[in-house]
Design brief:
single chain, alpha/beta, Metallo-beta-lactamase, Chain A, seven-stranded mixed beta sheet, 22% helix, globular, binds ligand LLZGTKA7, binds zinc ion, Metallo-beta-lactamase domain-containing protein, metal ion binding, hydrolase activity, RibonucZ/Hydroxyglut_hydro
Amino acid sequence: MKVQMLGTGSAFAKKYYNTNALFYTDSHTIMLDCGITAPLSLHQLGKSFNDIDALLISHIHADHIGGMEEFALQMSFIFRRKPVLYVMDSLVDQLWNSSLKGGLKQEMFNTLDDYFEVRLLSEDVSAKLMPGFHVRPIRTSHIPNKSSYSFLINETFFYSADMKFDPALLEALVQEGCTTIFHDCQFASPGMVHTTLDELMSLPSYVQERIMLMHYDDNKVDYEGQTGFMKFVEQHRLYSF
Ligand SMILES: O=c1ccn([C@@H]2O[C@H](COP(=O)(O)O)[C@@H](O)[C@H]2O)c(=O)[nH]1
Ligand SMILES: [Zn+2]
Ligand SMILES: [Zn+2]
């Protein structure tokens, strides 16, 4: 299994694009989140939306779903097929009614199902999305009263959505055999709706050693060499796990 980030930046980062990922199995490509910068990043990789076999969504913020309108329109009107969309049962209505409907509703296209082959996921229920790609969605805390989900992939790789610091979860995942953690990281404190670098630096070394930092601000250069045992994830680089 390989992962390649379409971007590694925070919601307002301009240098690093939105934190969205491509996962490659032997036979399929799964996109995890499709933010505003995803279409441009895919283009820069020489790829198109038609290369994506399934899209998985963590939560409803523009840096995670802002590219979905273009994805839906290109697939319908250029590639003429419905891509698979994995979305949490608690997010699906909001995704259409509060976010996508304004741009996508038109004659003959009235629902999310008119653009995507929608498959629902449930919290803490493991699902096989594609051969060799299993996820367990874990609800993690982000914006008050707004659902957001991180994902444990193939029982060994944890991908945080935007989440507040949850050391108990991270330590439990490591105890259960998680070897790699891609975690959002905000440099400035307090975190408010994200985990800060200071919070991650408070983790024991055996946890930090498994953590790669993403969703960071444009001033990343100021923090290079100051991240304890953790390294930064880099845009477009291929990582095997
Ligand atoms: O309660 C809050 C506090 C801050 N925000 C801001 O919005 C962005 C949302 O984008 P993310 O992708 O979740 O980062 C967040 O960074 C804060 O700057 C908020 O929405 N609600
Ligand atoms: Zn975000
Ligand atoms: Zn968010």
